[in-house]
Amino acid sequence: MSNGTILVADDDAAIRTVLNQALSRAGYSVRLTSNAATLWRWVAEGEGDVVITDVVMPDENVFDLLPRIKRTRPDLPVIVMSAQNTFMTAIRASEKGAYDYLPKPFDLKELITVVGRARAEPRGPKRVGREDETGEAIPLVGRSPAMQDIYRMLARLMQTDLTVMISGESGTGKELVARALHDYGKRRKGPFVAVNMAAIPRDLIESELFGHERGAFTGAQTRSAGRFEQAEGGTLFLDEIGDMPMDAQTRLLRVLQQGEYTTVGGRTPIRTDVRIVAATNKDLRVLIRQGLFREDLFFRLNVVPIRLPPLRERADDIPDLVRHFLAITEKEGLPAKTIEPGAIEAMQHYRWPGNVRELENLVRRVTALYPQERISAALIESELAPTVEAEAPSNVPDPNDLSGAVERYLTRYFSGFGEGLPPPGLYHRILREIEMPLISAVLGATRGNQIKASELLGVNRNTLRKKIRDLDVQVVRRNARI
């Protein structure tokens, strides 16, 4: 007995054959066509339970056909395939009402799973977004499998208000993803407000987020709107959420639970209508174990987790990214450049500790500083060489030089803020960073014996116990070696 009829439209005969075989084995009846006109006739006559179609057909672009299909048969799931594999392709598929989007080449098992889900979970009509995206700037670049997974997830999130947690190393493009969620989502007409939690002094975070009333504290001469009020009806992007102090975390949790807040110095609750997108380059689960981040807040924010891969995990995207940055620099008035294949290959073998941001800086630098039109592999290797040499074993600092290591760390830390300064409370943050590995190492050396550990550290035993509890240090008792 057939599981239903699948209408397949693709002008590639080989793909039609493969899909026919796979779907037939899965128990479906299959009808095949190489043009959009036949597909539209079948749909208009009421045939088919699911449509699988390529975007670019010989007679019509399926994105032009999709609105007619959704008006005529709004419950008919349409699965879109494309070899273009860009972020905008996934977004347009979602906005035109496609059930799902699959980049070519695709996994046949995944396609069968998507078809089965479409048959089991028929959908009503979806809200159609903007009709024409042609010519718009592409906010995200890359065709690697890792980026395709992100595109598909973002496309599914566009017409929702679900809270999103974006994690990834610095420079991977977390704010770009947050902006894409806003600019192509249902709140696009509202404001997008970004706030970096690591850049705000701890004693001003609550005022920054929730605003304050006149006279709420010394220097509050007038009422000030907070970021929640500024983002009303739109999206609030909380970057570096792992740096939010505990008291502010408590207030944020209350807002997420109750949907309202009060200004600093205010008494009247204010209802809020914002979508929260948070981002972090830290492992929040580690911070939870250390008592630095609320577990209940984590689960409120981590409704839909998105992990952005570092550039070293998506090296195949480097040619597209380089072309993208070259086009930007040319529009900004810098000389037009081309990158030789050998130079691209050199970039693909580099580790990119600064990720996409570091790659963009490199492209801007070679475009601005070098007169030659073609950028060679030798030039790129010379640009990347200083970083590589700094990481070479011959230049590794003396591991016994603790004060020197701390000084080097702090130099890098302060340089990350450019002309600014880090948030207050640095003394206690550094002590906390050092205390945990120190106590863990001493407990390991004493095989979990806290009496010996307190003697070795030169602190009272009760003090050590409190530190172990506050820092959530795992104490493992081991038998002495024979």
UniProtKB/TrEMBL annotation:
<dbReference type="GO" id="GO:0005737">
    <property type="term" value="C:cytoplasm"/>
</dbReference>
<dbReference type="InterPro" id="IPR058031">
    <property type="entry name" value="AAA_lid_NorR"/>
</dbReference>
<dbReference type="InterPro" id="IPR025944">
    <property type="entry name" value="Sigma_54_int_dom_CS"/>
</dbReference>
<dbReference type="GO" id="GO:0006355">
    <property type="term" value="P:regulation of DNA-templated transcription"/>
</dbReference>
<dbReference type="Pfam" id="PF02954">
    <property type="entry name" value="HTH_8"/>
</dbReference>
<dbReference type="InterPro" id="IPR010114">
    <property type="entry name" value="Transcript_reg_NtrC"/>
</dbReference>
<keyword id="KW-0238">DNA-binding</keyword>
<feature type="domain" description="Response regulatory">
    <location>
        <begin position="5"/>
        <end position="119"/>
    </location>
</feature>
<dbReference type="Pfam" id="PF00158">
    <property type="entry name" value="Sigma54_activat"/>
</dbReference>
<dbReference type="GO" id="GO:0006808">
    <property type="term" value="P:regulation of nitrogen utilization"/>
</dbReference>
<keyword id="KW-0902">Two-component regulatory system</keyword>
<keyword id="KW-0067">ATP-binding</keyword>
<dbReference type="InterPro" id="IPR002078">
    <property type="entry name" value="Sigma_54_int"/>
</dbReference>
<keyword id="KW-0597">Phosphoprotein</keyword>
<keyword id="KW-0805">Transcription regulation</keyword>
<dbReference type="Pfam" id="PF00072">
    <property type="entry name" value="Response_reg"/>
</dbReference>
<keyword id="KW-0678">Repressor</keyword>
<dbReference type="InterPro" id="IPR027417">
    <property type="entry name" value="P-loop_NTPase"/>
</dbReference>
<dbReference type="InterPro" id="IPR025662">
    <property type="entry name" value="Sigma_54_int_dom_ATP-bd_1"/>
</dbReference>
<feature type="domain" description="Sigma-54 factor interaction">
    <location>
        <begin position="140"/>
        <end position="368"/>
    </location>
</feature>
<dbReference type="InterPro" id="IPR002197">
    <property type="entry name" value="HTH_Fis"/>
</dbReference>
<comment type="function">
    <text>Member of the two-component regulatory system NtrB/NtrC, which controls expression of the nitrogen-regulated (ntr) genes in response to nitrogen limitation. Phosphorylated NtrC binds directly to DNA and stimulates the formation of open promoter-sigma54-RNA polymerase complexes.</text>
</comment>
<keyword id="KW-0535">Nitrogen fixation</keyword>
<dbReference type="InterPro" id="IPR009057">
    <property type="entry name" value="Homeodomain-like_sf"/>
</dbReference>
<keyword id="KW-0010">Activator</keyword>
<dbReference type="InterPro" id="IPR003593">
    <property type="entry name" value="AAA+_ATPase"/>
</dbReference>
<keyword id="KW-0963">Cytoplasm</keyword>
<keyword id="KW-0804">Transcription</keyword>
<dbReference type="InterPro" id="IPR001789">
    <property type="entry name" value="Sig_transdc_resp-reg_receiver"/>
</dbReference>
<dbReference type="GO" id="GO:0005524">
    <property type="term" value="F:ATP binding"/>
</dbReference>
<dbReference type="Pfam" id="PF25601">
    <property type="entry name" value="AAA_lid_14"/>
</dbReference>
<dbReference type="GO" id="GO:0043565">
    <property type="term" value="F:sequence-specific DNA binding"/>
</dbReference>
<keyword id="KW-0547">Nucleotide-binding</keyword>
<dbReference type="InterPro" id="IPR011006">
    <property type="entry name" value="CheY-like_superfamily"/>
</dbReference>
<protein>
    <recommendedName>
        <fullName>DNA-binding transcriptional regulator NtrC</fullName>
    </recommendedName>
</protein>
<dbReference type="InterPro" id="IPR025943">
    <property type="entry name" value="Sigma_54_int_dom_ATP-bd_2"/>
</dbReference>
<dbReference type="GO" id="GO:0000156">
    <property type="term" value="F:phosphorelay response regulator activity"/>
</dbReference>
<feature type="modified residue" description="4-aspartylphosphate">
    <location>
        <position position="54"/>
    </location>
</feature>
